[in-house]
Specification:
Low-confidence stretches: 1-9
Distance between the termini: 25 Å
Largest sheet: 6 strands, mixed
CATH topology of one domain: Rossmann fold
CATH architecture of one domain: 3-Layer(aba) Sandwich
Mean pLDDT: 90
Strand content: 25-35%
Number of strands: 12
Helix content: 25-40%
Structural class: alpha/beta
Order of helices and strands: EEEHEEHEHHHEHEHEEHHEE
CATH class of one domain: Alpha Beta
Number of helices: 9
CATH superfamily of one domain: P-loop containing nucleotide triphosphate hydrolases
């Protein structure tokens, strides 16, 4: 049974109960249940193909779940229209590739689409301008999106998500193809976003790098054999048993860094018994 944090007395932004998802006869996720509190960055970990991205898409109705319930701010996503859901949840996919010559400013403005009627209002433009300034994107604002580097494109997609003014951010492998500097830069942006107490928003981030997850996440959700293996704070979830059983490697957990996060040093593949 998945361990829940002692912080469960706080109001949840996300409540997932008994979620099950299959591709045909192949069950990908089974009996997934967890909650996400305000101002929390949840890193979703597990080996390739374990269902991390699938879970992210289930929370946004991209994947239609077979069973269970997903509630955002107390409302079942099945009761929300796509437009209503977009006001509460912003989804940033792993890769966004386009050769269409659209300005960065207009990409970010697309985040206001759930609120638009016939035309873009002055308030919408002010929101976009403020986000561009906050994320230091002024030099990119009128460049074509497809000419940007991978890290620059991810920043723009984060800006677009912020323009939606959601309370839940879903990120699918946001640093998978980035260099080390860009990985830290993007995760710092996400961490700053959810740490703002004035907004009471949270983020669920599918990730590969266990040490980056340890450093930036408030909670770690590990998926293994289609179920939640553990769900707790990094210092509890990321232990030698978890790493060995889930990733099939021998590892040591080094002393925590200044942030209180454990550092995982992988030694070798686990010997078959």
């Amino acid at each position: 049974m998945a361990k829940q944090s002692t912080k469960d007395n706080l109001k949840s932004l996300v409540e997932v109960t008994g979620l099950r998802f299959s591709y045909g006869d192949k069950e990908i996720l089974s009996d997934i249940s967890f909650t996400v509190k305000p101002n929390c960055l949840v890193a979703v970990l597990g080996v390739n193909g374990t269902g991390k991205s699938t879970l992210i898409k289930c929370l946004n109705k991209i994947n239609q779940i077979n069973d269970g319930d997903v509630r955002i701010l107390g409302q079942s996503i099945e009761d929300l229209s796509i437009n209503e859901l977009a006001k509460k949840v912003a989804y940033v996919p792993q890769n966004v590739s386009t050769s269409f010559p659209i300005d960065v400013y207009d990409v970010i403005l697309l985040g206001r689409r759930p609120y638009l009627t016939w035309s873009v209002g002055e308030d919408d433009r002010k929101i976009v301008a403020r986000i561009i300034e906050t994320l230091n994107l002024e030099e990119f604002a009128f460049r074509k999106f497809h000419t940007l580097s991978g890290g620059e494109q991810q920043k723009v997609m984060i800006a677009k998500a912020i323009a939606q003014q959601p309370q839940i951010y879903l990120f699918d492998e946001p640093t998978s193809s980035l260099d080390l500097f860009s990985q830290y830069d993007i995760l710092t942006q996400i961490k700053d976003l959810v740490s703002d107490k004035a907004n009471s928003c949270s983020a669920i981030v599918a990730m590969h790098d266990i040490n980056l997850a340890s450093k930036f996440a408030d909670m770690i959700l590990v998926i293994h054999d289609s179920k939640i293996y553990c769900y707790d704070e990094p210092c509890i979830a990321l232990n030698m048993t978890t790493v060995s059983e889930v990733y099939s490697v021998e590892a040591e957990v080094l002393k925590m860094d200044e942030s209180g996060s454990p550092i995982i040093n992988v030694l070798r593949p686990k010997k078959e018994e």
